[in-house]
Amino acid sequence: MEIQKYLPESIKKLPTHMDFVGQKKAEKMFQIIIITFATVGFIWGYICQQFSQTMYILIAGFVISCLLTLPPWSMFRNSPLNWQKSRTEAEEIGSTSTPQSSQKSKKKK
């Protein structure tokens, strides 16, 4: 990306990832907030007899949920994955099987 060259170092150091457990937490939190605000908005809109009140409350819930779940907060980065070490080319060549044997079994049309 060309833009990254022009960004200051303080911006480049910001975390931009979220682990899988954090993604699950964020999705669950998003759903709970949206359902809660939708329910409250529907009840309040029904009491006031104005659909616009329902929409305002639902939009407020959407904004709050976006602020809480879209940025990669540290609570969403508590379970990092331990990746395997990369293998050298010599190890990869010795352990791979030939792809031609699987192609021979396929029938030509």
Work out the helicity level: 55-70%
Shape field: elongated
pLDDT averaged over residues: 85
Query: In terms of structural class, how would the helical and strand content be classed?
Result: mainly alpha
Terminal CA distance: 43 Å
What's the helix-strand series? HHHHH
Total DSSP helices: 5
Q: How many strands, what sense, and barrel or not for the largest sheet?
A: none
Low-confidence stretches: none
Folded structure, characterized:
It is built from 5 helices and no strands. Helix 2 runs antiparallel to helix 3. It has 109 residues and is an all-alpha fold. It is elongated and about 70 Å long.
Which features does this protein show?
0% strand, single chain, mainly alpha, 109 residues
Q: Topology, pairings included?
A:
Blueprint lengths: L8 H4 L7 H29 L2 H19 L19 H7 L4 H5 L5
Helix pairs in contact: 2-3
Task: Give a short summary of the structure.
The chain is an all-alpha fold. It has helices at residues 9-12, 20-48, 51-69, 89-95, 100-104.
